[in-house]
Amino acid sequence: MRWVVRAMMTILVAGLLLATTAPAASAHAELRQSSPRVDSVVGGEFHSIALQFSGLDAEADFRAQLLDPAGNPIGGTAVREEMRIVIPIEPLEVPGVYTVSYTTIGLDGDLVSDLFTFRYDPSAPEPEGITIEITTVERLGWFGYLLLLAGAAVLGYLVHRFRFAYREHREAKLVS
């Protein structure tokens, strides 16, 4: 019977450790999709560059810009829409290779900076929009961790009371 109690305690401790530690890789900001797509050839008339991320810290600073074929920044100030960054632009007129650069911070606090290109050809089709859903990552926050700690304390107390009552029961059984 003693091994059962030890096994329960081991499972309890392992569960608490797993519940309070987050995997670092899932919190890294990662570009999931863009419009226009990376290395695509697009044409037509469009009014924005959209970057869809996962693991983006919604409260952290970011920077994103579009560079024309000559390397000059064009477009308006980038705005964030949850896990998406949008750069408003005037319709492109000059054919060539355009560069999108961005710098942002992930939920894990790591700085992510990258760039990609697309080619504008007026005879090509317009770019596809973002086809994946916007997802947000809910964080526990300090209150959630406090509740988790309180729950662990209550669970620890209950396990202690169970073990104490079981010990008294065994001693009473031996005496009689």
How is this structure best described in words?
The structure is a single chain. This protein has a five-stranded mixed β-sheet, with no helix packed on it. Strands 1-3-7-6 form a four-stranded antiparallel β-sheet, with no helix packed on it. A hairpin with a 2-residue loop joins strand 6 and strand 7. The chain is α+β, with helices and mostly antiparallel strands and 176 residues long. Helix 1 (2-20) packs antiparallel against helix 2. It is rod-shaped, with a radius of gyration of 27 Å. Helix content is 31%, strand content 28%. The chain starts with a helix and ends with a helix. The chain has helices at 2-20, 141-175, and strands spanning 30-35, 41-42, 48-54, 63-67, 73-74, 79-81, 84-88, 96-105, 111-120. It has two domains: 2-22 and 140-175; 25-120, Sandwich (Immunoglobulin-like), CATH 2.60.40.
Topology readout:
Elements (H helix, E strand, L loop, with lengths): L1 H19 L9 E6 L5 E2 L5 E7 L8 E5 L5 E2 L4 E3 L2 E5 L7 E10 L5 E10 L20 H35 L1
Parallel strand pairs: 2-9
Antiparallel strand pairs: 1-3, 3-7, 4-5, 4-8, 6-7, 8-9
Helix pairs in contact: 1-2
Order of helices and strands: HEEEEEEEEEH
Tell me the overall shape.
rod-shaped
CATH structural class of the largest domain: Mainly Beta
Q: Helix share of residues?
A: 25-40%
DSSP strand count? 9
Number of helices: 2
Mean pLDDT: 84
| Termini separation | 21 Å
Cα radius of gyration in angstroms: 27 Å
Strand order of the largest sheet: 2-9-8-4-5
Percent in strands: 25-35%
Oligomer: single chain
CATH topology (level 3) name of the largest domain? Immunoglobulin-like
Structural class call reads alpha+beta
CATH architecture descriptor name of the largest domain: Sandwich
**How many domain units?**
2
Largest sheet: 5 strands, mixed
Uncertain regions: pLDDT < 50 for 5+ in a row?
Answer: none
